Model the fold of this input.
Amino acid sequence: MNHSAILETHEALGETALIADPAAIVSLCTYLKHDEKFIRLSAVTAVDWHPAEPRFEVVYHLHSIKRNRRLRVKCRLESANAEIESVYSVWRSADWYEREVFDMFGIQFRNHPNLVRILMPLDWEGHPLRKDYPVHGYKYSYPNE
Amino acid sequence: MKKAIDEDSVATLQAPAVEPENPAAPRLMTLNMGPQHPSTHGVLRIMLELEGETIRKAVPDIGFLHTGIEKECEQKTWQQVVTLTDRVDYLANLSNNLVYALAVEKLLQLEIPPRAQWMRVMLCELARINSHLVWLGTHALDIGAMTMFFYCFREREDILRLFEMFSGQRMMTSYIRPGGLALEPPRGWQKAVGKFIRAFPDKVQEYEDLLDANPIWKRRTQGVGFISLEDMLDLGVSGPMIRGAGLKWDIRKDEPYSSYEKFNFEVPTRQENDVYARYQVRLTEMRESAKIVVQALEGMPEGPWQANAPHVLLPDREKMKTQMEALIYHFKIVTEGYRVPAGEVYQAVESPRGEIAYYIVSDGTSKPYRVHMRTPSFGNLQALGTLLKDTLIADSIAALGSMDFVLGDTDR
Done:
């Protein structure tokens, strides 16, 4: 695999991970899907490394049924600019996966067809899976706390 | 944060603008199905746009059962998370236990003894039969075959009794834990499992006779609920839906875990890609699962049922009271939990509904840093809009049921 967007590669516990340049995520994913046959996007998620910077890691898990391989692609995002291009144009399954990441972490996906909350209510405030979000939420607190 | 909730996004959930001036334009009606519709078996809302009786657009709305399990995982120690994994999918509780245990064991680099691995396989296959029985019973009930429900739940009760025998719980078993099993298998389990599983293939035959000789069942399922294989792969569908479209993809075969490679079983596929094909796939899967259980029963290896890892597993009560080291380990595990080396792992297994995968990040402490659950129902449900497009509203129940989703699994 040779692509200008790949910054680092890691092998650990039998799994391969790529650190990719967030600016080139769509071209990298298009290449991986068409040339490397990763036809399935298994999952998209994120990890919050608060208070470290770059704060967010968006993690894509790719799967090739034909080659029986799995691949992890990670993009690091600064908290000041938590924004990345949507990969919906490559895999349609990214629709809900990216909505979930937006809902839980507040990461914006550019050119996503319908980037609204999916699991939390539409008028919810805050993004629950961020590390600085309290477990009980902002709204509800108990008298003795 | 407020930016996300603009008027445009809310407007997509409301009625489409119908222009009464133009009589040639199709008159669309918006129908709100759910969140309390009996056929959704949970809390799912679907916005349907109907032209007459044909569905032109279906937009699923999920999140009613969201309980923040992933957030809660970050607050618990590694062994406490096991009890949360059961509650993700109450029909495939053991698959969820297993995928979590496998992921943590991979991080800890633990070697699991063969007896525990085989026991896990046996229990997961019983859970698969349990899940498919609930699916078949409720799906047939939705379509109008009421008897099936009682037949399927009769056998399901036997399986739940077996789970109770092993773990003390009927549904939230928490029986598979990092390092092995929670308890020693109970006395007489071979006899109990053997009695059930040897009688089971005849029961499956009974279901098939009851449904396949029924012209109404065939009319309601054959040729209904088509969705192309390319669409399914693109939309993240996995499991029996994919195999009903002719693709032989089963994680148990392709990426064997917990010594599945030592078992002899077939992966059933069908070419028709309709509700009937999915029913046939699941029925055959139940037979294959029964075969695996029989193989596990007959070839169960002797040996320990837990790994040799005193820093992870609670010691035996007897040892705890007589040996100082065991007492120290017990104290450490109970008070602060065990530590897992820093790293990340993505472990996938084949649940009754498809690919279930946990992505676990550890930062070296006694609590997981991040647990992401890639659940099969979430991926499958995403294809619902495509599946229901241009079908009749009466067929939507059959098509919906053939997906076999669990809403707790979707919303987590």
User: Anything to note?
Assistant: The longest helix of chain A spans residues 94-105. Chain A has a mean pLDDT of 87. The first strand of chain A starts at residue 6 and ends at 12. DSSP finds two helices and seven strands in chain A.
